[in-house]
């Protein structure tokens, strides 16, 4: 009978996937969303709550609530960053989709993409950067301005379509992209681009977008210029200042092609060499 019920659903999503997503969300903890429901409160009716998520996702009737906007002061001053906090239930639903999508895209991601990927960390990116800086004296320190607020939806969806045949993955990605932000005063802000920082599905969507917008473009256009990318920040290694300036211009143009912009103040060309004698001494 249970198998018959599953077969009647529009989409094949297992209850085990929902349970695994819950385990990840519970482990990550986090604040409640617009409904005020905490992890502990959600767990009081865990079976019913998880069934409701599975039932709605499997039938195509899951619609995300607004995302609670939280203002976080930027670490170096200069205003605030908006963090989007989904509800606990929505975080679980997003984690189901993120896990399914991640299985498809991880095998094709670039080896020098480090952010929010299993088995990789910021320290891995720093170590690779340090290793390459010994061989090349110039680096371009790239920063994409307001990436999570500006990334175009149509290109995200196009990238998702290229990596999954699961109609429901695309369906729910589109619904999450369109979910409004609920501001601290309770008003709703409709969006036409971007994917909120803080959502469970945003990291894999960001990496998938930049896989095509940056990683594969660099590999195709500048194969001799190695880089390390941590989501929307990247370091590119160059053999000369001239090459670094050429790359800043080319990458800036590329970002504009895909609806983004390099941060004019945070994108820098840096000389990182030491003398040959000093270098040999440090290597001993």
Structural class: alpha+beta
User: Beta-strand level of the residues, as a percent range?
Assistant: 5-15%
The helix content, as a percent range, equals 40-55%
Tell me the distance between the termini: 70 Å
Mean pLDDT: 91
Radius of gyration: 21 Å
Shape: elongated
Low-confidence stretches: 1-6, 275-284
**Structure summary, number of beta strands:** 8
By DSSP (H or I, 4+ residues per run), the number of helices equals: 12
Q: How is the main sheet built?
A: 4 strands, mixed
How would you write the strand order of the largest sheet? 2-1-4-5
Helix/strand order: HHHHEEHHEHHHEEHEEHEH
Summarize the structure in words.
This protein has 284 residues and is α+β, with helices and mostly antiparallel strands. The chain contains twelve helices and eight strands. The protein has helices at 2-7, 15-28, 39-44, 46-59, 88-105, 122-133, 147-150, 153-161, 167-178, 202-221, 241-257, 276-283; strands at residues 67-73, 80-85, 138-143, 181-182, 188-189, 227-230, 233-238, 268-271. The protein has a four-stranded mixed β-sheet with strand order 2-1-4-5, with no helix packed on it. Strand 6 and strand 7 (233-238) form a beta hairpin. Helix 2 (15-28) packs across helix 5, helix 4 packs across helix 5 (88-105) and helix 5 crosses helix 9 (167-178). The chain is elongated and about 60 Å long. Mean pLDDT is 91; it is low at 1-6 and 275-284.
